[in-house]
Amino acid sequence: MKNWLRKIEDTMAAAAFAEEGEFEAAQQLAGEQGKILLALTGENTDMKAFKYAVNMSERIKADLEIICSRKGRDKLLAAFEPQLKERGISYKINAIDGCVKEEILTYTEMRTDILFVILESSEGQNLNCKKEQKVIENSWKGLKCPLVIVSDMATA
Q1: Which end of the chain, N or C, is surrounded by fewer C-beta atoms within 10 Å?
Q2: Are residues 20 and 90 both part of a single domain?
Q3: What is the model's pTM?
Q4: What is the residue-wise DSSP string for 26-76?
Q5: What is the Cα–Cα distance from 23 to 63, expressed in whole angstroms?
């Protein structure tokens, strides 16, 4: 009964926000599920980023969207897809051709459902990037959501 009343309250609040033009707040209250964007580059540290993304996806009940290079797509699918299916995580995989950083920026620019981006910290993130895109100060300025960088050195 308590859950049912809570659901009605959330629905009414979402309707009020939507009427005032606050569509993002309305969607959150209405229960639209957010997504985690995982960028895989084909490097060895992808496994740590993948594990982090899967754990976060399970904890916050978010879908997982994965972008990876077109070259490494089949290898990554073979390694990760069985685990995603086994754990019941909803996912979508998109192959990319260009600079990983640029693809992330483009992907998240108009997507308000992306909660945050998970990226491994190797040099692989600079794959196919122009020199100005490799400079940290310039590369992430346009990102519209938090960026989580999974380090390969975290053993303390």
Answers
A1: C
A2: no
A3: 0.70
A4: HHHHHTPPPEEEEEE-SSTTHHHHHHHHHHHHHHHT-EEEEEEETTTHHHH
A5: 20
Q: Is the dihedral of CA 78, 82, 106, 138 positive or negative?
A: negative
Question: Rounded distance, CA 91 to CA 85, Å?
Answer: 9
Walk along the chain (156 residues) and give the pLDDT tens digit of each residue. 565 466 557 656 766 666 677 766 666 665 656 899 999 876 655 788 899 899 888 887 789 999 988 877 778 778 888 999 999 999 998 888 878 888 888 888 888 888 889 988 755 555 556 655 455 556 677 788 888 888 766 554
> How many CB atoms are located within 10 Å of the residue 90 CB?
13
